[in-house]
Amino acid sequence: MTFSDLSRNPKSVAERAARLGRLRDNHRDAPDSYLTAADREERRDESLTTASRIFLGS
C-alpha cells in the first residue's frame, strides 16, 4: 500500500489492515512504516516481554 492509497481511501485501507493484521506503507521519500491495530501491537509487546524474562531467567 502507498501513502496515497491511505489518503485517497482510508476506509478501504483500514478494512484491509484489520483483515490482514497489518499493512506495510511504502513511502517514496521516507522509510516504510506499518499500519496495524493497537491491540495487536500490545499483544506483541507482552509476548516479547515474557520471552525476554524467560530467556534472562527473571
Q: Which regions contain 5 or more consecutive residues with pLDDT less than 50? A: none
The major sheet is characterized as: 2 strands, antiparallel
Characterize the quaternary organization of these chains: single chain
What would the average pLDDT be, to the nearest integer? Answer: 89
- The total count of strands amounts to 2
Helix and strand run: HHEEH
Topology:
Elements: H1 3-8, H2 10-20, E1 22-25, E2 33-36, H3 38-56
Antiparallel strand pairs: 1-2
What does this structure look like?
The protein has 58 residues and is an alpha+beta fold. It has 3 helices and 2 strands, in the order H-H-E-E-H. It has helices spanning 3-8, 10-20, 38-56, and strands at 22-25, 33-36. It is elongated and about 50 Å long. The mean pLDDT is 89.
Task: Give the tags.
single chain; two-stranded antiparallel sheet
Quick overview:
This protein is an alpha+beta fold and 58 residues long.
